[in-house]
Amino acid sequence: MNSTQQHRPIMVGLVVGSSRQGRRGPAVAGWVAETAARHPATKAGEVTVELIDLAEQRLPMLDEPVPARFGDYRHEHTRRWSTVVAACDAFIFVTPEYNSSVPAVLKNAIDHLDAEWRGKPAGLLSYGARGGGRAAAHLRAILGEVGMKVRPDHVELQLFTDFQWPAGSTSDPTAKARIAPAPERAAEVTLMVTDLVAAGRAADPVPVS
Ligand SMILES: Cc1cc2nc3c(=O)[nH]c(=O)nc-3n(C[C@H](O)[C@H](O)[C@H](O)COP(=O)(O)O)c2cc1C
Predict the structure, then answer these.
(1) To bridge 97 with a disulfide, which of 10, 38, 111, 128 should be the other Cys (CB 3.0-4.6 Å)?
(2) Ordered structural domains, the chain, with CATH
């Protein structure tokens, strides 16, 4: 590639994987977006991050008569969701751990589509009382099934060390804890963005002139 040729920007979909009232997901995703915004590739205009909040997508529980692998979507809500996902080159999935796994809303959103995920790179960030590693492990298997290239390392945020809680409130599940991860976690997200850009470039090797 000579200096006059440029790749089009990689669009990274930042998926907020929870939808309940009072969820911490948007705060976690907001911190990921801020961290990604400081990445040199983002500053250079080589990456854009698109927030995809599953609470706003309002997908029903899967009601398509034909499995997504056939690409025969009968419902408008699925076609709309397909357009959102197809527009992204790579994804960062932000998932809490619910009963050792991912929230149903996230699994449901993945199950609605197939080709739109296939071959695209993905990075995972989990959070939970002990970092949500079991949710991340399940999510890795699910995304592998739809053909995503999931990077080997995931980022974990621990509810009681990567958030600042008002004094004496850690046993209150509705307490407004402020997200405040250790600097190492931001470095891990930065590395994730670097990896996704590299993988996105590899998947789209032809520069635009
Ligand atoms: C239904 C449910 C199940 C949960 N199960 C786990 C669990 O298995 N492991 C864990 O570390 N935390 C668990 N938690 C705590 C969540 O990780 C924590 O509440 C987190 O903030 C949830 O993400 P959200 O606020 O974005 O919904 C659970 C929370 C809910 C609501």
Answers:
(1) 128
(2) 10-62+82-166+174-203 (3.40.50.360)
